[in-house]
Amino acid sequence: MYQGQAYPGAAALRPVPLWLVGLVLASVAALYVVGPALHEATIPLMQDELGLTRRDEAVARLVGLPVALTTLAVVGRTGDLRGRRSVLTVSLAVLAAGCAMLAAAFSAWFYILGRTVAVAGLAAVFVSCLAFLPAVYLPGRIQRVVGGGLAAMSLGFVAVVNVAPRASSVAGWRATTAALGLGVVAALLVTRRCLPETAPSRVKPLRDCGGTTVWLTAGILAAAGLRLAPLWGWSDARVQALLAAAGAVMLSARLRADLTRRRRAAARRQPAVPGIVYAAAGAAGVAVGFTQVVLTAAVPTLTTVAGGTPDDGALVLSAFGAGGAVGCLLVRYRRVTPVTGGSLGLPLAALGTVLLHTVLARGGQPVGGGCVAVVLVGCGTMLAAAPRMAQYLATIPRRHLGTHAALLPASILLGTAAAQALPHASVLEDAPIPDEARGLLWIGSSVIAVAALLLGRPVVALAVAGAAALQYVLAGTGPDQSVTAVAALATGAGVGAVVWHRREQAEHLERTRETAVALQRAVLHPIAPVLGRLRLASSYSPATVDTGIGGDFLEALQTHYGTRILIGDVRGKGLHAVRTVTDLLGCFRSQAHETPDLGELAARLDRQVARAAAAHGDDELFATALLLQFGSPAASRVGTGQDGFAPADPGDVLGINCGHLAPLAVSADHATRVHDVAMPTLLPLGFGTLGRIDADGRTSDLVRPFRIRLDTGTTLLLYTDGLSEARNSSGEFYPVTQQLTQAPQQDPEHLVRHLHDGVRNWTHHLTDDIAVIALTPTGPA
Predict the structure, then answer these.
(1) 3-class DSSP state for residue 608?
(2) Closest among 209, 237, 239, 208 to 226, alpha carbons compared
(3) Fold of 277-473
(4) Residue 658 β-bridge partners
(5) What are 399-422's pLDDT values in tens digits?
(6) How far apart are CA 246 and CA 632, in angstroms?
(7) Architecture field, domain 527-777
(8) Which residues pair with 626 in a beta bridge?
(9) What is the pLDDT of residues 640-685, one digit of tens each?
(10) Is the dihedral angle over the CA atoms 766, 768, 773, 774 positive or is it negative?
């Protein structure tokens, strides 16, 4: 069930296992790949029976692309306002109607109409599935879900490319198209049965209409120019005017987005999605669409020239989906970052394109060598695209999921249109001859190389591009063995240099990680699971991951005066706060064993921070802290908050709160209850307010600890503000209290683990350190 893995708003939805939701969405989204691939296989049969010309097909594509872009924007926003499941079921119904119209087509114009309806349905289905993911899953889980969903779509591409030609030739194109429509109807029934309905957004329908309209206009103009270029020619003034107008509108949209972002920042509203995230996601989508079309146009021709059959060409082409599935599964299970995916995946795809050109040009083993090369292209392309798409979906605000999610399929469509506008990939021309097919592959490798420079590390992309160029020289040198040897040595030396440099970087990174771990262990000692009569559990997550420690601190010690616990937060983050944390913890570890009075111990910590501020020349240095003591002697005197001072009970927790968050008490009698522990709050450490040294050198005017009753079965939770102030993509704070009530068990270990996993699912990027301690008595006093 959801059980804290989804947004709080999803708790009101019909309880459905999340794995089932992901499976249904992946299966339905696969229609976006299966439908076009099946249609491409049936086009020759349709042309023969209906008398379709290439110009009719061009007109269908010309009309379909603007309709698809408009559908993406409209359906995405409608899902925000009306609910995801309702819009997805309507989209599936439209797609089923389009399939029925295609199966019953009797003329060219009816075919164009049916295809337009089907294209609109496919676009609506895909954008609804994409927007469904961040509406149900937390940002920290988006990458795993996107990786699995794209892997399923890639495997669907493998199946349909190999099965569709045979099925259409045996059963006919009408029966095949009708079977697809029946599959869509089955998906509609499963969707209504298994998917929950999401809560509609409360945002006004036209609030973001201006920006969406501008981007949609730019996309339609660009799509029209790309589609008309094969019909009118690239030199036609009308085509150039459309493309120039699209560029101008995109520039104005960019300027408008920058102005809106500055206005929101000035008004201190929720920050907009960074422009680099938009650009990277769009570039990844364009690369995917462009690469797939180039392979579809070039691979069958080159496979046939190399000695293969049309079925062999379909098998080699389907290897793109197999490689894509491998890349997506790596993203799902290895948590590949966007930069790593771009740095490794796109150069790998470029190398695979060059290798494909070489293998199919030489002949011999077109199926085996071609499949290996295409697998490299598919794996590299999706290894780069999937993390970018996941990052984008995890970043966009939940109130505008549909509108923003439309960028991903729109960029894929524009990449497809750009590739189909090339002279030898246009539907108006015959299948390319071998030289034209090789030219398409070189264009594809150039586009992938540019994407590698944009989305990954340029040094890696350039190194792999150099190796690929030398590989081509090696394959094309002919019988001259001396040149071949030189090329082989150069290629080996270049690849060896890259590998050596990469190994040194890996070793340096490993040394850095070992240093960070040693630093964390030296400053933050592990807290024992049992101290005295307390069971404890703790967790520490620094915002600066590679340092291992930040500005938060925590410690628990068993002393002659009971179990003493300290948790707090130094002003600032990262390495500049480590020095103060080290001084403060060192003072606590030495003085906790020597100072009987808890108020005196707090005063000494206060003076230590003040001395550190003077030594560092930082007048604004302070630290919030919560100091607790359990199992204190009966002679200790505490403040009651009402009647002065009273002797402490051995079952009490004595506490002094210096500007820190109040602890939470978690009890589980019949139902889990969580409440704040009310206690006086003093100024943070470093202000010199916890006691003054008199003429005899003794501390006077000490603050008395406050008494907290801790019953058996109650867990006390201490935490820093990094936990409660962790934000998701919509700017919502992590609901600590609500997450505690949803914890399956209330013992310290499970509570801390539940919060640690929950906050990492809640946000895709920690901006502050997080320290948590949970404690409970082991038995009655």
Answers:
(1) helix
(2) 239
(3) Growth Hormone; Chain: A; (1.20.1250)
(4) 625, 682
(5) 778 888 888 888 998 888 888 888
(6) 75
(7) 4-Layer Sandwich (3.60)
(8) 567, 657
(9) 443 344 445 666 899 999 999 999 999 876 566 888 898 999 999 9
(10) negative
